[in-house]
Amino acid sequence: MLDVAVVGLGWWGRTIVSLLEGSKRLRVVRAVEPNPGAAAFAVQKGIPCSQGHAEALADPAVRGVILCTPHTTHADQIVAAARAGRHVFCEKPLALTRADARRALAACEAAGVALGVGHERRFEPGIGELRRLIAAGEIGRPLQIEANFSQDKFLAMPADNWRLTAAEAPGGPLTATGIHLVDLSVSVLGQPERAFASVRQLGSHLANGDTLGALLTFRGGGHALLGAILATPFDGRFAVYGSEGWFEVRDKAHPENPQGWVLTHCRRGRAPERREIPPAPAVLANLEAFAGAALGGAPYPMTREEMLATVSALEAIVRSAASGQAEAVEG
User: Fold this and answer.
1) Which residues pair with 57 in a beta bridge?
2) Cβ-contact 169, 163 below 8 angstroms
């Protein structure tokens, strides 16, 4: 059992605490939350709560931290945790710049601690099946990804919420939902090469932009066409088109409350085959994979090269949305 502190008790931090009540691999032994109103949640759960991150790192009972904090704080918090010898699970995105991501990764490497990232979409059964089929050559050479992850949850947030600010969420929907698609694209096509993106405020009061369209090209030759919107009801799909067929995973509901997935596989010369996948707790699966790695089990199933590539692509998308030009992805 990995005893952890959850840092940040906002919407997602509270979700994580409640989710881990049923975990056999992680136990929340401390929380960190400077806001008294949010900290009351920890009191209700009977969890000791500190105002500062340093207090949690000084607690010998805490062996790992789960960061549910504003994006600009991630790199410094990861470095501090690693230097204190604590394993780190960080909500996405790992960082907003390649430089910060490299700094965080180097600190974890030097300290020998496990690092996990909140890209739970990788842990959905449908995505797992898609990646298995690609590895087995079932769709031939992957040529192009088409994906969308849109929602309207943020419309109810106050305009000054940190998730809607330019500093914490450059690229509009990118850090909220689009980053998941970037990560999945990296997992299929490898290292991105260039990004061309546009962000617009088209259907809401969200001044930072509510509609993102992005094209990523990859060193291996493939493309990813990615869409993310914060002003429309939920829709989620991830499709990979190959030289011998294609495969699509379509969500039935928002991943926060999964209702299962519809998988469609089309092989050359055959009619598309559809099947349904029942709901599965992908967020918990991700956290428990991190705990397993921290406890000396199987390595965490996301390489640090992939973590860095995803942040590098994020940074290039943000630059492209600002410049209106295609931007190179560092790496």
Assistant:
1) none
2) yes
127 forms beta bridges with: none
As a whole number of angstroms, the distance between CA 159 and CA 163 comes to 9
Q: Which pLDDT does position 4 carry in this prediction?
A: 98
Given this model, what pLDDT does residue 19 score? Answer: 93
Q: Answer whether 78's CB lies under 8 Å from 18's CB.
A: no
For residue 65, which of 75, 73, 57, 74 has the smallest C-alpha distance? Answer: 57
Where in 133-260 does DSSP place strands (E)?
Answer: 142-150, 192-200, 211-218, 223-229, 235-242, 245-251
Domain count, the chain: 2
What are residue 187's phi and psi, to 5 degrees?
-65, -25
Q: Burial letters for 277-308: b for 16+ Cβ neighbours within 10 Å, e otherwise?
A: beebbbbbbbbbbbbbbbeeeeebbbebebbb
Low-confidence ranges of the chain (pLDDT < 70): none
CATH number, domain at 89? 3.40.50.720
Helix 11-20 to helix 36-45 angle (10° resolution) is: 10
Per-residue model confidence (pLDDT) at position 256: 79
At 21-76, the pLDDT tens digits run 989 999 999 999 998 877 789 888 999 999 888 999 999 999 999 999 999 999 99
Against a cut of 0.85, is the pTM above it? Answer: yes
Query: What contacts 119, CB < 8 A, 6 or more positions away?
Result: 92, 179, 180, 183, 184, 286, 302, 310
Do 219 and 103 sit in the same domain of this protein? no
Residue 10 structural domain: 2-119
156 Cβ neighbours under 8 A, 6+ residues apart: none
Task: Please list the alpha-helical segments (H only) found in 52-124.
Answer: 53-57, 74-83, 98-111
Q: Which of 69, 101, 119 is the last residue of a domain?
A: 119
